[in-house]
Design goal:
Length: 287
């Protein structure tokens, strides 16, 4: 509009209007994606399969670990900031043949700006819905302690500080005997809590999965339920997520005794077993 006379929009005003329309359109699209992911998470909750969110400082090796655990190469691995933008979830069988869902998330940085937290809302929402956070730490980095603190501060901002956290000390394959000893001395508090792994070489991953499973199923609630035969999904849920100690087949349904994770115990509330005087003789019993 420089040097022009008369009424009408300047080019700058036109650009601002178009940019404003574009921003409004993108916000609507983001809300659609958010609603879709909320429905997806609700479906996962109904299945009661535990969710483990992989978190950590950027370039700690989260995507490499995700690919190694899931046997997938779908997630791009790159040595750069925010190589992972969209959350990706895959099913993994734990050592005791229990299923779990692992989710890769965006890499955190120190003092993550509020605008970026909003931009990465889709992936950060996955963190809040997890049953366990797997915090990946680059144990070769000289500022590993500061990076762990930065991730913890971001988790506090997301208000998920009550979730259980497990430390995975990654890139152990890059340590020499001398630097390994120095790292164990320098980061002794991390080694006291975490498990040393190499996502690239696969070292320590079986032990990591065993610890994850132990953490998920550490708190089991004793339960006695009577589930009608028509609710086969709940019977399967008890077997998949819990430890069955006794099964009794009655005419009105299946009586199950055992222990289940606290996160799924509430779903069995309508089926809590109450023996009555008219309880009929079981067809057969499997102990």
């Amino acid at each position: 509009g420089v040097g022009l006379r008369g009424p009408g929009e300047t080019q700058l005003e036109v650009d601002r209007r178009e940019i404003g329309s574009r921003i409004a359109h993108l916000k609507k699209e983001i809300e659609k994606i958010r609603a879709h992911r909320q429905r997806y998470r609700a479906q996962r909750k109904r299945s009661a399969v535990p969710v483990i969110a992989i978190v950590g400082y950027t370039n700690a090796g989260k995507s490499t670990l995700f690919n190694a655990l899931t046997g997938s190469e779908e997630v791009e691995v790159a040595d750069q900031l925010f190589a992972t933008l969209d959350p990706t979830t895959r099913r993994v069988m734990l050592p005791e043949k229990r299923p779990a869902l692992f989710t890769d998330t965006v890499g955190f940085i120190q003092k993550l700006p509020t605008t970026l937290v909003a931009a990465f809302r889709a992936t950060l929402e996955e963190v809040g819905e997890a049953d366990l956070l797997l915090h990946v730490v680059d144990i070769t980095h000289p500022n590993a302690l500061q990076q762990v603190q930065a991730v913890q501060e971001t988790l506090d901002e997301l208000n998920v500080h009550d979730l259980p956290v497990m430390l995975a000390l990654n890139k152990a394959d890059q340590l020499t005997p001398e630097t390994h000893a120095a790292a164990r001395e320098r980061f002794s508090e991390l080694y006291a809590e975490g498990i040393e792994i190499s996502a690239l070489m696969g070292t320590g991953l079986p032990d990591l999965l065993a610890r994850v499973e132990a953490q998920l199923y550490a708190a089991l609630v004793p339960l006695k339920v009577m589930v009608p035969y028509t609710d086969g999904q709940m019977i399967s849920l008890f077997h998949e997520q819990g430890i069955v100690e006794r099964t009794e087949h009655l005419e009105e349904g299946v009586r199950l005794e055992g222990r289940v994770p606290e996160r799924v115990a509430a779903r069995f509330k309508p089926y809590l077993f109450k023996r009555s005087r008219t309880t009929k003789t079981p067809r057969h019993r499997v102990s």
